[in-house]
Specification:
mainly alpha; 0% strand
């Protein structure tokens, strides 16, 4: 018997490997890649956690920033030695760099240490707000972002929209990604505004934002992803054969 695999007729259940046979399996694979597994999530979270904990304990902004950057550089060095992807460490460094830029702007404007610390948290609030708006918009216009994960596997970026079941599933998954961002922005933005306006003690606002950044960071994200995994485990929506590469 020849070792060459026979061509599979369109619609056959053997058209794709088992792990890629359903939309749910495709999205699970893409989410795992996007998050980088447990190590990638830890690398993205550790520098921010260190900054928050140090500010809450030593109340020295420069020390908190230097230590968080140092931790990220150590993680980066380990990745480079192991010749593995540095994407998630670089993401953390980028976040710290943007926060540092906002801190410097606050300092240049004559802001106090508390006001500078508040400025460090502003990019995260703006990011969550913007990310929620963008993701929600993709759902409302019928082009949920998660659908493009399916398209990246099938080889056609938009063919998945021909299947209403796939669009519905991808919309639900995208809304689950929106929810943590809405919760973070909805809770943290009023505290930041109160601290900045003086209606709340700035030091108390910084402490609250620091705690919330940890509590509402990866734990909230993992809760959303757990909901996505549960939803993906319930259904088995076949990938549209017409969207698969020839």
């Amino acid at each position: 018997m020849s070792e060459q695999q026979p061509e599979t007729p369109p619609g056959s259940t053997q058209a794709a490997p088992v792990e890629r046979a359903t939309v749910e399996a495709v999205v699970r694979t893409q989410l795992a890649t996007a998050l980088g597994g447990k190590r990638g999530m830890a690398e993205a979270a550790v520098p921010t956690i260190l900054f928050t904990l140090l500010w809450l304990t030593v109340r020295d902004l420069r020390t908190a920033l230097v230590v968080s950057v140092g931790a990220a550089l150590v993680l980066l060095a380990v990745r480079l030695v192991q010749r593995s992807t540095v994407q998630f460490v670089l993401n953390a460094l980028l976040g710290i760099g943007i926060g540092w830029f906002f801190v410097q702007r606050a300092a240049a404007a004559g802001g106090s240490a508390e006001e500078q610390a508040l400025a460090y948290f502003l990019p995260g609030i703006l990011y969550n707000t913007g990310y929620a708006v963008v993701l929600a918009t993709t759902c409302l216009v019928g082009w949920p972002l998660v659908g493009f994960m399916v398209g990246s596997i099938t080889g056609d970026a938009t063919a998945w929209r021909r299947d209403r079941q796939v669009v519905k599933l991808c919309s639900r998954l995208t809304w689950l990604l929106v929810l943590p961002c809405v919760i973070r922005a909805g809770v943290q933005a009023p505290i930041w505004l109160a601290g900045s306006s003086g209606s709340m003690d700035p030091d108390a606002a910084v402490a609250a934002l620091g705690v919330l950044k940890i509590v509402m960071g990866w734990p909230l994200q993992l809760a959303a992803l757990g909901s996505m995994v549960w939803l993906l485990a319930r259904d088995r929506t076949p990938v549209d054969p017409e969207a698969a590469p020839a």
